Amino acid sequence: MDKTVCVYCASSQRCDAVYHDAARRLGGVLAEQGFTIVYGGGGLGSMGALAEGALAARGKIIGIIPRFMMELEWGDRGLTELRVVEDMRIRKHAMLTESHGVVALPGGSGTLEELFEAITLKRLGLYVHPIVLVNTRDFFTPLIHLLQHAVAERFMNEQHLNMWQVVATPDEVPAALDAAPSWSETARDFAAVR
Q1: What angle do CA 126, 132, 133 make, to 5 degrees?
Q2: Would you say 67 and 46 are in contact if contact means Cβ atoms under 8 Å apart?
Q3: CA nearest to 105, candidates 51, 159, 66
Q4: Rounded distance, CA 71 to CA 89, Å?
Q5: How far apart are the first and last CA of the chain?
Q6: Sequence spans of domains, the chain
Q7: Contact call for residues 37 and 31 (beta carbons, < 8 A)
Q8: d(Cα 61, Cα 51) in Å, to the nearest integer?
Q9: 176 near 1, Cβ under 8 Å?
Q10: Residue 141's CB: how many other CB atoms inside 10 A?
Q11: How far apart are CA 178 and CA 90, in angstroms?
Q12: 1 pLDDT above the threshold of 60
């Protein structure tokens, strides 16, 4: 696979430090494996820890941040590249289209919204790359159960459970990206539940 990965993560500074530790480790692991990281450009919380880990390992990390966040001084100016865009919509589009894989760390509504957009686009065959959830402290377990329930209730097809992989630690991410089942635009054939 191409070595550019989009990482979704949070800016909260009040969550348990284990989440920041996992983000820092992920940045280091991806950098050591030669991945370029594209993320939301923030300098706080898991976002800042991800960047710190990548830069400490001499990795390349690109932040894409909306203008209003830069005006609030939320951007991390120490990145390989920090790109300022007009709004959240453009930011999300750029992060996804410039990557060949998604990694989701635990986070709040923004992180979950980004993750669901990636899953939705993959279901429609518009994004065909791996999606990996790092299940630190079993954070994503309720979400995984909800998605399985959506399949059981026939809102999604059984094949849709192959759209993402779940790992327990950041160290498992590169192998999960490589081992993800192939996906293509033919996913449109079973996107709708009939």
Answers
A1: 120
A2: no
A3: 51
A4: 17
A5: 33
A6: 4-189
A7: yes
A8: 7
A9: no
A10: 12
A11: 28
A12: no
Which pLDDT score, from 0 to 100, does residue 2 have? 67
CA 14 from centre of chain = 20
Residue 173: strand, helix, or coil: helix
Fold of 4-189: Rossmann fold (3.40.50)
Helix (H, G, I), strand (E, B) or coil at 138: helix
Distance CA 133, CA 190 (A): 23
Could you give the CA distance from residue 162 to residue 178 in angstroms, rounded to a whole number? 14
For residue 4, the surrounding DSSP H or E stretch is strand 4-8
Going along 9-151, which residue ranges are E strands?
36-39, 60-66, 81-85, 102-104, 131-134
Type of residue at 69: M
How far is 43 from 98, CA to CA, in rounded Å? 21
User: What does DSSP assign to residue 54?
Assistant: H
For the chain, how many residues are written?
194
- Average pLDDT of the chain to the nearest whole number: 96
- 6-21 pLDDT, tens digit each: 999 999 999 999 999 9
Contacts of 193 (CB under 8 A, 6+ apart): 154, 155, 156, 157
